[in-house]
Design a protein that fits this description.
globular; two-stranded parallel sheet; mainly alpha; 487 residues; 2 strands
Length: 487
């Protein structure tokens, strides 16, 4: 079930909301939690009911390990063994479903063997609920977790606004909210704020991201060759599509959670305004960056080691981040590039030099835009196709009217061709205008969290939300899955 679907907006969300608070109103608190867990499992099973036992087993086993670790607080060796076994279980589960066929394919390629691929469909959200529960086990080992019952723990893991694509939750910021008595009653201001944020997220996804998706898909997946302008339009279309798609999902997730008086963590903070790669990762997918920092980078030694060990820690952290995103060499290469960029940034920072802000932003944005190509491309050929076009190694096609404006020597030198400049991606001048609009929104406008923090119930905000929602609903016939559902 998609957030941007009629059945979710008009049936699932309001029904789950009203019954939950009705049960709380008549003091059936436990029944309300059971209802919310049931709704969350129904939401998850809507995609493929056969994977309900998988998430159920994962929750039960992690809860058992977490409880056992907490109860053995004075027995360090036993706690460590329990933690290792629990992490091995989580990594093994994720590896089987997400990476088994990748390993088999590479074995067949390397050794010219013919091992059959497994008939596996990646369960939605497995990366997110696995990371959430792994962090829970580690915090149990560190003595940072109070003991919770199975119902509260299950609600923490399955709460449907975050279940499929995050944000990646931390127990310390969520469990107290589920236990809070004041959160059991409807809060009209929270509801209004949630609806406002949900409408923004819906607009970002349906109106902006799905519009950009057409040119990204045509450029990456359909076109055989891309000229200079087409290649840049393709890469920028995906760069903005990914942001508006994923941040739109997060806005809807946070908005839906607010209806239940639950505050999910902020996951985006205008990442394309970043002046360097480190700042980018403090603004993009913030909860993933937090997980990588707290549960990989710091345990490896963080900044407390020698210089080269720090560089190694940075590189390995981002390599693992690339692997987490997908089973493919392009994802691994994407992680490698970001690891190298983080090392280069650290070296530059340690040198004491300061770069002019506009140049710093330009380098950072273009690095992000180029590396997203490897994140999006299905294989190396698709990535190289876009990159070749971007540096003019394919063809340079310009609008026909420029043939009468540009000097002949310039046309001859660069071998310009004058015809329809965007036919391979089915683009037009509207494409360029929309990309400029996306650029303006991401760089110069307030982001949705800043807008939400200034929100107060009024006729203006009501009309704003209604307008965004109606425009989004009018385009729901273009429904597509959220990009991060694949990760």
């Amino acid at each position: 079930m998609l957030f941007n679907s009629l059945e979710f907006i008009f049936f699932f969300l309001p029904i789950s909301f009203f019954i939950y608070f009705h049960l709380n109103k008549i003091r059936l608190i436990v029944a309300g939690k059971i209802w919310l867990v049931g709704c969350s499992l129904f939401f998850y099973g809507w995609w493929n009911i056969s994977y309900l036992p998988l998430i159920g087993i994962s929750i039960i086993i992690n809860y058992i390990f977490g409880s056992s670790i907490t109860k053995n607080i004075n027995y360090t060796m036993k706690k460590r063994h329990l933690l290792i076994i629990g992490i091995i279980f989580n990594i093994g589960l994720l590896s089987y479903y997400k990476y088994a066929n990748f390993f088999i394919h590479n074995i067949n390629t390397s050794f010219d063997s013919s091992l059959p691929l497994l008939n596996i469909v990646l369960p939605l959200g497995i990366s997110f609920f696995t990371f959430t529960q792994t962090a829970y086990l580690v915090d149990c080992y560190r003595g940072r977790v109070k003991e919770y019952d199975l119902l509260n723990y299950t609600l923490f893991v399955t709460f449907y606004p975050h279940l499929i694509a995050g944000p990646i939750l931390h127990h310390s910021e969520m469990m107290p909210q589920f236990a809070s008595i004041k959160n059991l009653l409807k809060n009209n201001k929270q509801i209004a704020s949630g609806v406002f944020l949900f409408s923004i997220g819906l607009f970002k996804k349906v109106v902006i991201a799905d519009t950009l998706a057409v040119w990204a898909v045509n450029g990456f997946d359909k076109a055989k060759i891309l000229n200079l302008i087409e290649a840049w339009v393709t890469s920028l279309s995906f760069t903005f599509q990914l942001y508006f798609d994923f941040s739109g999902y997060t806005d809807m997730a946070i908005g839906a959670a607010l209806l239940f008086n639950i505050k999910l963590p902020v996951n985006f903070n205008s990442p394309y305004k970043s002046m360097n790669i480190q700042e980018f990762w403090r603004r993009w997918h913030i909860t993933l960056s937090r997980f990588l920092r707290d549960y990989i980078y710091i345990p490896l030694g963080g900044n407390k080691s020698g210089r080269f060990k720090i560089y190694f820690n940075l590189f390995l952290t981002f390599l693992l981040g690339g692997i987490w995103h997908g089973a493919g060499w392009t994802f691994i290469f994407w992680g490698v590039l970001h690891g190298i960029a983080m090392i280069m940034h650290r070296i530059w920072h340690n040198s004491g030099r300061v770069m002019q802000k506009n140049l710093s932003w330009l380098i950072t944005f273009n690095f992000i835009n180029i590396t997203w190509i490897f994140f999006r491309a299905k294989d190396w050929d698709d990535a190289l196709k876009v990159l070749k076009g971007m540096v003019g190694l394919s063809t340079i096609v310009l609008p026909e009217r420029l043939a009468y404006v540009l000097p002949d020597i310039l046309i001859t030198t660069f071998n310009f061709t004058f015809k329809s400049w965007a036919e391979n991606i089915n683009g037009s001048m509207d494409t360029i205008l929309i990309l400029f609009l996306c650029f303006f929104i991401t760089i110069f406008c307030k982001n949705s969290m800043e807008m939400k923090n200034k929100f107060h119930p009024s006729k203006y905000y009501l009309m704003f939300s209604i307008s965004l929602t109606l425009l989004s609903l009018s385009l729901l016939n273009r429904i597509s899955e959220f990009l991060y559902f694949n990760f």
